[in-house]
Amino acid sequence: MKRDFELIKKILLKTEENPSPSNWIELTIDGSSDKEVYYHVKLLRDAGLLSAVDLTTSNGFCWLPRSLTWEGHNFLDNARNDTVWKKSLKLVKEKGGSVSFNVFQNLLQNQATKLFEGL
């Protein structure tokens, strides 16, 4: 399964809305299967952006988020701005369409920083 930056952003936004970070969140995201969402929640946990719980059983794979980490909030703060997000995605597509998560985070950071240049 391929990593999907748009899905990552949606998961982080929905997780941020959770009023009780001690409980896991059952996510439904239009256009994505449960399996895709669970896989990306696990990736986000592995990357240190989410606190999540593994509810996988013999009946199936299942990862649900609880809350954002400090790094998750930082990433989302840069990703939340549509101008920053779209410019970063556009740069990735122009340069070949695929980059590591660290490179994408750096692009977001650079685009966010540019918004404040000259102030």
Give an overview of the whole structure.
With about 120 residues, the protein is mostly helical. Helix content is about 50%, strand content about 10%. It is built from 5 helices and 2 strands, in the order ααββααα. It has helices spanning about 5-15, 35-45, 70-80, 80-95, 100-115, and strands at about 50-55, 65-70. The protein has a two-stranded antiparallel sheet. A hairpin with an 8-residue loop joins strand 1 and strand 2 (about 65-70). The longest helix is centred in the last third of the chain and has 14 residues, at about 100-115. The protein is globular and about 55 Å long. The protein starts with a helix and ends in a 5-residue tail after the last helix. The mean pLDDT is about 90.
Summarize the helices and strands and which ones pair or pack.
Layout: H1 5-16, H2 34-46, E1 50-54, E2 63-68, H3 70-79, H4 82-94, H5 101-114
Antiparallel strand pairs: 1-2
Low-confidence stretches: none
Quaternary status: single chain
- The tally of beta strands, per DSSP, is 2
How many helical stretches? 5
Helix content: 40-55%
Shape: globular
| Largest sheet: spatial strand order | 1-2
* N-to-C order of helices and strands: HHEEHHH
- What summary fits the major beta sheet? 2 strands, antiparallel
* Distance between the amino and carboxyl termini: 42 Å
Q: What is the rounded Rg?
A: 15 Å
Strand content: 5-15%
Mean pLDDT: 92
Provide the structure class: mainly alpha
